[in-house]
Structure formats: structure tokens, C-alpha cells
Amino acid sequence: FTSWNDDSYGGDNNGDGSATSPQKADWHWISFGTSSGNNLNYCKILYAGSGSVDLESALNMGDGANNSITNSVIAHTAGDANQIYAALDMARCPHSCVATGNTFFDNGHPVMIGIASDFDNTNMFHNPDNVSQTNLCNGIFVDCVDVGAANATWSATEVAYVFGGPSGNSWYMPTTITRTLGDNVVLKFRTNSPTPGFSLYIPAGVSQLINYNGTGVAFTAYEDDSLKGDTNGDGASAGTSGSWEGIETAGPNWYAWPNIHYAAH
């Protein structure tokens, strides 16, 4: 799925020789809407994202069940550091939806998942032919609003999972929900205005956040490029003490684990 100006696939369809070349936002997007059972496998989605800043996506997986994108490439999607959605939008997907073995590069925000989504380490966030080509805001952005939560596992390690990014929300986990973190997984939290910003609330305690103290697991500020690189698209930056709230349980009690960085509490 690409621009009609992209002569590298299907030849010169607009009849202008080499006068034009594909550009981001040459076409809009693919949307699964409310339908179920869709699968894109070994596909490429290139130069998408036309529309307002709110609509700069390449694939919206909708809210149907058993939808998936696997072994595919999403690249060159229009979008900047302030867009609301991502090149792959899974924000409303139930737990049965899958994204595995995919490659994302040269997008604004590569991926947005919902709080029912598994998201694993089979996905890549750079151009395999040019490892320096990543995404402007290179992270997995978590939407805490649009779908009901489910037990899920997050094990991607190339980039961080981000709270308070385009979705703009902290997460107050229901007491019956767990999140399993793989080793070397990083969660980042955005600064609000005014500070301190976003947080994670686990009312039933650490049993809800499995492997919170695993090898390489960390919780830090959105601006902290020392862990998983530049997630907010502003170039080299460091975290600021007190820039996000922290991790809380009932009481209220705030955790002081050694792998929590730059939190206010």
C-alpha cells in the first residue's frame, strides 16, 4: 500500500517519468473499523497519513476482535511530535488483536497500543538497512482510555512504553488486572503542565506489576534519553527531578524502588 508517485512499486502509474517522488501524506490510511478477523501479513504500508494532525495514521486496527498485522513494514507516515495518533493505532483493540514481527521507521509516533494489548520484542523500531533511521518519537505509546483493560505482557526492549504521550493519561489499574513486564523493559511517564505529571496506580500492590524489579526494568521520565533513546522527539535531553508523579498503591503510598527515576514521590 503506497503512494501512486512511488515508481518503485508497480512502475510509473501517474505517467510523469521521474518528475515526482513519493512523499509522506500522499494518501490517508487503512482502517479496520468495527470489523473482525482481518490480517495483514508480509505487507508494506508507505507514505500514508494525509489529513489533520489527529488523523495522521497508516493503519487503524479499529475495535473488532482477532485483527492482526504481522511481519510487515510501516514507514514514512506523516506526523510530528505533537500528533495525537500513531502510524499503527491499536488504542481500541481488544486483547485478541496482535502485532508481531513488524518494522517501523521514519514515522512520527510508530505505535499506540491500548491497555488490553500485548506487545512483544519481535517488533523493530529502525530501518534494518540503515539502523540510524528510527522514528521521530521512538516509543510505544499507551492509551489508557479507549478500551477496557485486560491482563497483558509487555516485553519490547528496543524502545520504551510511554504513559501520558499522545493519549495524555495516567493509568489507574483495576484491582483484577495484571501487567507482566519482560526484563529490560522501560516505562516512561510524561510531564504535565503544571508538573509533576503522569503516574501509575496499582491498588492491589506489586502483585499487579509482575517483574517490576526484573533485570533492566526501569520507570523514568519521558525526557530521559539515557534509557531507550529519544522518545519525545526533541533531540538529546535528560530527565528532571519531579517531572512525573510516581507509582502509587492504596493508602496512598508511593513506592521508592531504586529503578524509579525522576519521580516527584
The topology string of helices and strands comes to EEEEEEEEEEEEEEEEEEEEE
Question: What does the oligomeric state look like here?
Answer: single chain
Rough outline: globular
Secondary-structure-based class equals mainly beta
Contiguous helical run count? 0
Description:
The chain is built from no helices and 21 strands. With 265 residues, the protein is mainly β. The strands form five sheets. It has an eight-stranded parallel beta sheet with strand order 1-4-7-10-11-13-16-19, with no helix packed on it. A hairpin with a 3-residue loop joins β20 (246-249) and β21 (253-254). The model has no long low-confidence stretch (mean pLDDT 93).
Descriptors:
265 residues, 21 strands, mainly beta
Concise account of the structure shown:
With 265 residues, this protein is an all-beta fold.
Set down the secondary structure blueprint.
Elements: E1 30-31, E2 39-41, E3 44-46, E4 59-60, E5 68-70, E6 73-75, E7 88-90, E8 98-100, E9 103-105, E10 111-114, E11 139-143, E12 152-154, E13 160-163, E14 171-172, E15 179-181, E16 186-189, E17 199-201, E18 209-210, E19 218-221, E20 246-249, E21 253-254
Parallel strand pairs: 1-4, 2-5, 3-6, 4-7, 5-8, 6-9, 7-10, 10-11, 11-13, 12-15, 13-16, 14-17, 15-18, 16-19, 17-20
Antiparallel strand pairs: 20-21
